[in-house]
Amino acid sequence: xxxxxxxxxxxxxxxxxxxxxxxxxxxxxxxxxxxxxxxxxxxxxxxxxxxxxxxxxxxxxxxxxxxxxxxxxxxxxxxxxxxxxxxxxxxxxxxxxxxxxxxxxxxxxxxxxxxxxxxxxxxxxxxxxxxxxxxxxxxxxxxxxxxxxxxxxxxxxxxxxxxxxxxxxxxxxxxxxxxxxxxxxxxxxxxxxxxxxxxxxxxxxxxxxxxxxxxxxxxxxxxxxxxxxxxxxxxxxxxxxxxxxxxxxxxxxxxxxxxxxxxxxxxxxxxxxxxxxxxxxxxxxxxxxxxxxxxxxxxxxxxxxxxxxxxxxxxxxxxxxxxxxxxxxxxxxxxxxxxxxxxxxxxxxxxxxxxxxxxxxxxxxxxxxxxxxxxxxxxxxxx
Amino acid sequence: xxxxxxxxxxxxxxxxxxxxxxxxxxxxxxxxxxxxxxxxxxxxxxxxxxxxxxxxxxxxxxxxxxxxxxxxxxxxxxxxxxxxxxxxxxxxxxxxxxxxxxxxxxxxxxxxxxxxxxxxxxxxxxxxxxxxxxxxxxxxxxxxxxxxxxxxxxxxxxxxxxxxxxxxxxxxxxxxxxxxxxxxxxxxxxxxxxxxxxxxxxxxxxxxxxxxxxxxxxxxxxxxxxxxxxxxxxxxxxxxxxxxxxxxxxxxxxxxxxxxxxxxxxxxxxxxxxxxxxxxxxxxxxxxxxx
Lengths: 383, 291
Description:
The structure holds two protein chains of two kinds.
Chain A: H1 9-12, H2 19-34, H3 41-66, H4 74-90, H5 95-117, H6 123-142, H7 144-147, E1 153-154, E2 158-160, E3 163-165, H8 170-191, H9 194-204, H10 206-211, H11 216-242, E4 244-245, H12 252-265, H13 270-292, H14 294-304, H15 308-323, H16 328-343, H17 347-360
Antiparallel strand pairs in A: 1-4, 2-3
Chain B: H1 2-32, H2 39-56, H3 61-84, H4 92-114, E1 129-132, E2 135-138, H5 139-161, H6 163-173, H7 175-180, H8 185-211, H9 217-232, H10 237-257, H11 262-277
Helix pairs in contact in B: 1-5, 1-6, 1-8, 1-9, 1-10, 2-3, 2-4, 2-8, 2-9, 3-8, 5-6, 5-8, 6-8, 9-10, 9-11, 10-11
C-alpha cells in the first residue's frame, strides 16, 4: 500500500497525487489514441458515443455529484447545444465559431434555469428541471423557422479550420477524445479551485457553507451554468455524430440515461462519469445480443443436457419471444437503476475502490469501511 | 359563453383525474417525504388488473373494481417492503431514482404481460350523459369527479382527525421522534404505500373507460399531475384537488383558445411560475431555517 506523506497544500491539490498515476493515465491515453488504428468501425463509433456520454457525465457530476443539486433535464441542454450547432452551421459558420457559441449559449440558459434553484431544493428542483426540459422540447418542435420542427434538421460534417471531418472518420474520434480530455482537465482544475471547494461545501451542508461566507446564490447559479455549458459542448458533438437531430431525440428518457450514467458510475468522482458512460453505451449492444444470440446458445445448452431437439426448439422460441418483447429496454433500465441504488450505491467506481482496498489491506479488509450512514427521515418542510 | 362553460366542465373533469393522481403523490410525501415517480404507472397497473378481473376473468364490474383496488394495496405494500424500505433515510435523490426505475419496470412489464393494444373496460354507467341545460357531461367523467371529491374528503379527515393519520404526520415530521413516541413507523409507512397504491388503483379503474388502458397512459398523466401537486402545495390533500382542477382547466382552455402546442406546455409554465413565486404552493406550509 502506498502512503502519500503530504507536507504542504500545493501537494494536496496536485493533479496527479503520485508519479504512478502519470504512468497509468498516460498509458490509458496512449491506448485510446492508438485504438482507431486497431479496432473496427463499429467499436470506434461506440467509443465516440462513450466520449460524448462521458462529457455529459462529467457535466452532471459537477452539478449532482459535487454541488448536490439534482437535474432531470440535461437532455434539454444537450438539445440546445445540438440545435445551436445545427442552426449556426446552416448559416455558414465554421465549427470553431459555433462550438464555443453553443457552450456559451447553453451556459447562459443554464444560469437562468439555476435561478429558481436558489429557492428550491430536493424534489422541487427535480420537478423544475423536468418541466424546463418539457418546455424546451415543445419549443424545439414549434419554432420551425430555426429548428425545422418535428421534421428535424440535417447536420453536415464538421468544418474545422478548413478541413472536413466526417462523423465516422478517425479525426472525429480524435476530436471527441481531445474535447473529453480537455473537459476532464478543466473540471479537475475547477474542483481544486475555491469555486470547486465552495461547490463541495454546498453539497455537504448548505447551512455550514453559508456560515463560512459562501454566497449560495452565486455558486449554485455558477454550478448550473458550468454544467449546462459543458453539456452544450457535448450537444454539438452529438449533433455531428448523429448527423440528424429532431425534438424526439431529446426526451425525458435521455435525461434519465444521463442520470443513470453517474448513478451507475458512482456519483462522487470523475471516474464514475466515465465508467457509467461505458456501461450505458454498452446496454444497447447487450440487448441486441440478448435478442439474437442468447436463445440459440441456451437452446444448444439444453440440448446438451438431454432435452432433445423438440424441447430445445421450444426453449429457443420461448426465450426469443421474451427477449424481443417491445418493452425489454425499459425493463432492463428500470432493473439496472433499482439494483444499483439498492445494492451498489457507490457505483462501479465504488466497487473498484473496494476491490483495490481489499487487496491493499489483504487480510484486514472490513466491509463496514464503506457502509453508508443511515439517517432517519426528518421533514424538509421545517428546515 | 356555452363553449366556455363546456370547456370549463371538461377541464374540471380532467382536473379531477390529475387531482386523483396528485393525491397519491401527496399521501406518500406527507408520510415519508418521498416522491413516488411511479405513481402514474401504479395507476396504469390498476387499470390492467381491473381489466384482468372484469374482462378476462369475467367478474361483475363492482366486484372486479373492489378486487383490483385491494390487489393494488398489496402491490403497494410489496413495493414498500422490498424497494423503498431498504433505502429509506438515504439521500432523497437515490429514492427518487428508484421510483423512476420502478416506473420503467412496471411500464415494460405491463406491456409484456397485457400487450400494447388499447384495452377497454365497459363500466355499467359508461354509456349515458348528464345534461344540464345545454351542457353535456358523460357519466364516466362525472364518476371521476364524484369519486375524487369523496376520496379527498375522506383522506383529509383521516389524516387530520384519526390517531393513525396523526401518526402518519408525525412519521413524516421526524421519524426518530416518532419511534420514540411508540409509533410503529415501518407499519405506518407500509400502510401509506398501500393507501396510495389503492388510490392509484381507483384512478386506474375509473379512467379505463375514458382514456383506455395502455402501458404508457401512466407516464403522461403522472407527469401532468406534478404541476397539480406542486401548485396545491406538496403535502396538502385538498391542495391536490385544487391544484388538479386549476391545471385541468388551464390545460383545456389553452387547448381551446391558444394556438397549438400551448396545451401541453401550459401546465409546466404554471409549475415553473409557482416554483419561482410561491414554492410552497397554494396550501403548503414551507418553513425556512435561518442561518
